[in-house]
C-alpha cells in the first residue's frame, strides 16, 4: 500500500449522553423523541434568561471542564474497547471527538 494511503478500522462505537448511557439506548431515546434538554437552574445568558442545555444529571456541573470530559469519555471508551474485543495494549492510535473551543468553553 502506498504510504499516503492509510486504512482506518472502526472497532466499535459508543456514547454517553443525557438520554442514554450507551449507543443503543441513546439511539432508542432519540428515535422516541426524547431530547433531554431543559432550562439550567444556575446558568443564564447575557440577557438573564436560563440557558437551555442537556446535561448528564449525575456528573456535577461544578467540575472543571477537563474533569467533566474525562468522566463523560471514559464509560463509552471502555464500552467500545470491550465490544471490539481489542486489548487496550494493542491500540496504537485513538481518535476521540471533543467540542471545539468556543465562547463560554474554557481553553484550559
What does this 3D model show about the protein?
The termini are far apart. It is built from two helices and two strands; from the N terminus they run αββα. The chain has a two-stranded antiparallel sheet with strand order 1-2. The chain has one domain (1-108). The chain is of the alpha+beta class and 108 residues long. Helix content is 27%, strand content 10%.
Characteristic terms for this protein:
single chain, 108 residues, alpha+beta, two-stranded antiparallel ribbon, 2 helices, 2 strands, 27% helix, globular
Count of discrete alpha- or pi-helical segments spanning 4 or more residues = 2
Computed Rg: 17 Å
What is the domain total for the residues? 1
In helices, the fraction of residues equals 25-40%
The amount of beta strand, in percent, is 5-15%
User: Biggest sheet: strands side by side, in what order?
Assistant: 1-2
* H-E string: HEEH
Stretches with pLDDT under 50, minimum 5 residues: none
| Quaternary structure of the protein | single chain
